[in-house]
Amino acid sequence: MKKVLFLSLLAPMLWFAQSNDLSQKFKVEAGFQGLNFGFEQPLSKKMLLDINAGIGGRVNIPAGNSIEYRLGVTSSETYLSPFFRTQLRYYFNRATRAARNHSLENNSGSFIGFQTKMVFNKSVDDVLVSDVHFGQQLPLGKHWIYRYHLGVGLGFNLAQGMGAFYPAVGSTFGYVF
Known about the structure:
Helix content: 10-25%
Largest sheet: 8 strands, antiparallel, barrel
Oligomer: single chain
Number of helices: 2
Strand content: over 45%
Low-confidence stretches: 4-18
């Protein structure tokens, strides 16, 4: 009788328990980088590949040790450029989040990431930017997410062979399908 009672109490917890596994997600995001459509693909229980394409600001490396980022439209010029971005994330705290009953919805958690972004500029040279960062992806309900990251990056002007270091700061709101 004790076994039946124990199993009847344990079964609902197992049915409604959160999975620690990362999951595939299609999404649309808007933030400092512009507007993009993306896909998150788990590579393991703690590693995820985030692939995105969109339109965002113009990145320029005018001389040696400087990098510029402009987003928007003025009366004389448009600062919009298409981009392709990949981000590899290593989630290190999903088990801790689950133990504290924090949501794991929409691949939420703290991560160490590596991001590479190719910006196709119309009026200046194309630029490749890569950074290493710490970040978090947080759920805002069932379909909404907020993600931020802080780190250091290196931008590289492909035509002129110039590079510049920059502080990598990102903030994004997204809708997950």
